[in-house]
Amino acid sequence: MTDLQLWLSAMEMGCFFGMLALAYHLIYVGAGFFNFAIGPYAMMGGLCTSWLVITYDLGVWPAAAIGVAATIALAAATELGVVRPVQKRGGGELPALVAVAAVLFAIQQFAGYLFGYPTLPGQSLASFAPVPVGDITVQPSSLLLIVVAVLTFVATAAWIRFSRTGRLLRAVGDSNQAAALLGLPVNRIRLIAFVVAGFVAALAGLLFAPKAGVNSLSGLHWSLSGFLAVVVGGTGSVWAPLLGGMLLGLVEVFLPYYFGGQSHVYGMLLIALLFFAFKPQGLFVRKVRA
Amino acid sequence: MARWVAGMATLALAVTACGGTGDDADSPTDGSAKGAPIIIGMDEDSTGPGASYSTIAGKTIRLAVQDINDKGGVLGRPLRLVIENDESDPTKVPAVLQKLHSQGAKALFLQSGSAAVMQAKSTLTQLGLPAIAPTGVTATLVEPPDNELIYMLANTTTDWAEVYCGAFKAANINTLGILTDDTTTIAALNKALLGGMSCVKITATEKGAANASDLSAQVARLKDANPDAVLVTSVGGAFEVLAQNTLAAQLKDKLRFSLASIGNQPSSWKLANPGALEGLIFMGSINQDNPRTKALTELLKKANGPDYEVTAYDAEGWDAVQLLKLAIEKAGGPDDPKKLNEAIQSISGYQASFGQGNFTLSFSATKHLGADGPCGLSLIEFGADNRPKGPWATFQPPCSS
Amino acid sequence: MAEETLLVGRGLTKRYGGVTALEGVDFELRAGEILGLVGPNGAGKTTLVDLISGAQAATTGELVLRGSKLTGPASRRARAGLARTFQYPQLALELSVRDNLLLGWAARRHASLWQMIVGAAAGALRPRVPADQAAVRTLAEELGIEGLDRAAGDLTLGEQRLVEVGRALGQDPLVLLLDEPFAGSDARGVTGIAEVIHTVQRRGHAVILVDHNVDLVARLVDRVMLLDRGRVVFDGDPRECLASPQMQSVYFGSDADTDTDSGAGSPETQAEVEDVRS
Amino acid sequence: MTTTISRPTVSSDRWDPRRIPGGGGLALGVAVAALILVWVGSDGYRQTLVISAATYALIALGMYVPYLMAGSLSMAYSAYAGIGGYAVGLISARTGLPLVVAWIAGPIVAALVAVVLGMVTRRLSGFFLAAVTLLFGMAFTAFLIDAESVSGGSGGLGNLRPLNLLGWTPSHYHVVVGSAVVVCVIAFLLDRLRLSPWGVVVRTMRDAPRAVEAAGVRVPVLNIVALALGAMIAAVGGGLFTYAAGSITPDTFTLNIVFLAIFMPLIGGAGTPWGAVAGAVIAVELTLNFPAVQTSGTLLLAVGVLVIMLVAPKGVVGYADKLRTRLWALLRKERDRG
């Protein structure tokens, strides 16, 4: 494990997964469920931006702004238009799960229809020369991804700790019922959680897209990776998603390095099984005593 | 809520409208040809994972049909394309072929980009319709079972193996590392290609997911194996570019080879880091010394704009239509599928619009691969601008002229 | 009537981390007996019911039903002869009242893996067993439940409780555990539940009735156990209990520590409570 | 809405299909199936549509038991259908056994895999279960490609033998009719199963698992039985498609199908297994046979799912049923008045 390049790759993946996991985390805290549409949000942020740049010759920054705004609108629409009405009907977590699965599927199809099905190159917001580090060179987009990821986590942590909305979010996360009883604006907090999560996911997708491009079907895979990261990290703290993402990034890079081939496909399944089985309560595991 | 529903309904309607008009606008017209149209079916993947390469040839097939119709058609009758989309979904392929058949198609183009097309073989036998897979390169497609009615144009992987071996010998390469994607299409191709390359020792085979976002682990393993050269086998697209980016960064001094796909997908060249493709050698088929290639290039640039990069997919699509025209003429009409099939098998010495100048395509009852010898192939090198620079100086497939 | 000992609990204790919900509870239940379990919210009543029914595992202590040890998951204890209702009725809200009542019989026929597999095949071939349907009708008449085709979700809370009690009776239990069955019930519901209790008693089986309303319980039961902060502070005649000093001190003496909902017994809520505290 | 219409009591002892549990659904299902088969006739394309619809319906019916009755969403159904398909392919290519054996072996193997996966994931529900089973489906595809000696690798298995039932070889049309019959029979049986005591226990498990456990049924075990049953039905579907299409590859049953299968019962109506069948027919019609939107049938389907979920949670069948009830009430009112 001395190859610097591998560590850089693991870090990039880790930052990306971490940001996706952070988006999961925010919605989990605000609304108490895992929004599987996080991956498609990230895809939307990346793909919409690339499409605007390529099709309309728009500058990268305005395109990115539109892409992020569109994703935020999508996240808000998910909450207001789909999840909230469905959850209002009750019936446990299955309706919400099916609803987000439908949203995930619909966003994929819609993005394909709007932006086309081929992979588009990601647009880099940074334009400086590659930075040599040791015997490798770090691409500007990689550097930007890592820096922004860290900043995002710092900002989110500060937001949750110091702002009124952030503290309210934490209160809602502690106990949804209690918060409702106390008269906290639970619905508004939920919406804010979705919006912030949409922003974080869009940013993640936008920054990660230069690495391998983005297409309308990237979302599902990203959703799964982000979900695993949030499970591995736990939902205990704002920083947990970053930890989970980093661990997963290491697995994604070093597992194929040592075992080759498809080992990461089996590896991810194994990690999911092990983690879900041995991670004690506190997660969303149904407690049926066997 | 009501407003939301209304919005969704409007959206759905809008989508429906766009979808409808979009398809009609693409279809070729009858041109100057009169008489009852000859219906040709095309299974194209216009929206699925294979769309990025399927549509390149699909576009040129439409253009070729239009060209034929403008020039009076086949036996005085216009060709009419009916097109269905299988979204690279194998469960859809039988239904798509059946649908084309029910719309009166007399012959088919199998232009689905992925392994989904493998699912077509037995359905073709059921339908009794001859079919051409213009861009197919997987030899198993035209091997038994159910291969009586299916044809491919380009050199297959067996020829590729021969050409690569020549190249390795010329460049003094004894050990080879393979970087491959996990698609079924490529797994099938690898089996045929690598099996035929006994000329080198394959010291490492690394596989990555087709939608991978990182390949540094695979490349690091290749680095550890330290082969003389690296061959990337993939369906192309994002995987190929990521592979080349990573190889360029981590294995600078190694000679890199690739399949045809990277050369045929100009849109993916932009994905690569600056200079990342420089020195990459791919299995090309476009050779501007071929006069027919030149003519086709002019035609395509006129239709698609002067910046258009002609690819082998274009040429293969074009030739597939010309071959079918020839076969229909030989059979005296499209209506007897058996006769039409025999007519395809009787085509010999067709001068292709890809490959080197004297490259020809011939078919017979036992030869469902059109290519005559490896002249259809050419090793092309990428330049520093991430565009093909021209034939690789070290080695070119021998071509008796 | 032979005063056979049906169920014995010894030293039942439940701790969640540092919180002790139940501490060394001993009790004995004789055949045909109706035992009232009373105490303020948070006294540990539901926890005790959970420990007996197997919904939660005891930290220490043991249970003996008719001479054999009662262990394992709730389902095994149910097969041994326990049935219970829940503080918050656990009904399939989309299913009809009829189907909810049917669960007691249906469950009995799907106890083992083999029965589950055969039951699936048999169910597809013969979905409605006339004997079951008749039994459900009889039970509903007995309890005064009408409108068997209504969805359980459309019932009032009191009606839901009645259905749940009926479902438990359908299991023909040796010991029936009723967790606050009267909350939200109207007069008819109370009568129906009282009827169930007497049916069980007539069969020579026993009932444990949980409620914080001591007056109501006292009229129905043979014996009362008063719980306070996880300990038994009184065990004996209901009228004596009402007049006892323990009763006075538990309900009126100190007003501290009655803030937590008695649902705090379940691990989920317990975890939540801990979360909020930390 | 709140007015209840008192029905005239049907007191005749005559045989009445409505009094057979699930009879109404069967009558309607068979009627529609018959209409479809008449419409299909000898048109090869339409025949293939029926096969596709039947395959989708069987996968959706397989998911029906664990997903809509027991309330746990397993997404490994691409693997189960694949196992059914590979059973047909392998028995045809590697053994001399009659091909019918594949429809016994495939479902059994699928059920065993479901049991193992169910045991490993027995503590999981909701999002966790969905994620793990999704990963399992992906790993299964990777396994099919890797295990070339077993599965024929990426090229899959083809050139299947025709079925031979005691000397009778069914034609393609017979297979089409047979697939419609199989779907109707399975939907009918599931509909009855739903109403049966077994169904009552399983459906109670969804909303009130604690009550089921307290009634003496081990919820995790019954859950696994439900999963195994579902896997068997999906495997039948996979086998049917493979036989009709003549080949199977690792990519034949993709995650796309699993997503469609989740949505089909929602479109058709989750209240009855016939809803899953109706949803499958609609999904095939939209994605394969909708002339106006060739390229966006799947998109339309996705949007349709969202709309139906929000506007008509009981799906098409539920909606039709509601309309029917209202219509009858209206007619009765008219009759009473006149």
UniProtKB/TrEMBL annotation, chain A:
This is Branched-chain amino acid ABC transporter permease. It comes from Sphaerimonospora thailandensis. Its main location: membrane. Belongs to the binding-protein-dependent transport system permease family. LivHM subfamily. Keywords: Amino-acid transport, Cell membrane, Membrane, Transmembrane, Transmembrane helix, Transport. It is a multi-pass membrane protein. GO terms for cellular component: plasma membrane. GO terms for biological process: amino acid transport. InterPro entries: ABC_transp_permease, BCAA_transport_permease. GO terms for molecular function: transmembrane transporter activity.
UniProtKB/TrEMBL annotation, chain B:
The keyword Ligase does not apply. It comes from the Bacteria. Keywords: Amino-acid transport, Signal, Transport. One of its GO terms (biological process) is amino acid transport. InterPro entries: BCAA_transport (IPR051010), Leu-bd (IPR028081), Leu_Ile_Val-bd (IPR000709), Peripla_BP_I (IPR028082). Residues 37-360 form the Leucine-binding protein domain. Residues 1-19 form the signal peptide. Coiled coil: none annotated. Belongs to the leucine-binding protein family. PANTHER family: LEUCINE-SPECIFIC-BINDING PROTEIN, PERIPLASMIC BINDING PROTEIN OF ABC TRANSPORTER FOR NATURAL AMINO ACIDS. This is Ethanolamine utilization protein EutJ. The lineage of its organism: Bacteria, Bacillati, Actinomycetota, Actinomycetes, Streptosporangiales.
UniProtKB/TrEMBL annotation, chain C:
The keyword Nucleotide-binding applies. Residues 247-278 are annotated as: Disordered. One of its GO terms (molecular function) is ATP binding. InterPro entries: AAA+_ATPase (IPR003593), ABC_AA/LPS_Transport (IPR051120), ABC_transporter-like_ATP-bd (IPR003439), P-loop_NTPase (IPR027417). Pfam families: ABC_tran (PF00005). One of its GO terms (cellular component) is plasma membrane. Residues 7-254 form the ABC transporter domain. Keywords: ATP-binding, Nucleotide-binding, Transport. Gene3D superfamilies: P-loop containing nucleotide triphosphate hydrolases. This is ABC transporter domain-containing protein.
TrEMBL record, chain D:
Coiled coil: none annotated. It is a multi-pass membrane protein. Pfam families: BPD_transp_2. The chain crosses the membrane at residues 20-41, 48-69, 100-120, 126-145, 165-190, 224-245, 257-284, 296-317. The keyword Transmembrane helix applies. InterPro entries: ABC_transp_permease, LivM-like. Its main location: membrane. It comes from the Bacteria. GO terms for cellular component: plasma membrane. It is found in: Cell membrane. The keyword Membrane applies. Keywords: Cell membrane, Membrane, Transmembrane, Transmembrane helix. One of its GO terms (molecular function) is branched-chain amino acid transmembrane transporter activity. Signal peptide: none annotated. PANTHER family: BRANCHED-CHAIN AMINO ACID TRANSPORT PERMEASE PROTEIN LIVM-RELATED, HIGH-AFFINITY BRANCHED-CHAIN AMINO ACID TRANSPORT SYSTEM PERMEASE. This is Amino acid/amide ABC transporter membrane protein 2 (HAAT family). The lineage of its organism: Bacteria, Bacillati, Actinomycetota, Actinomycetes, Streptosporangiales.
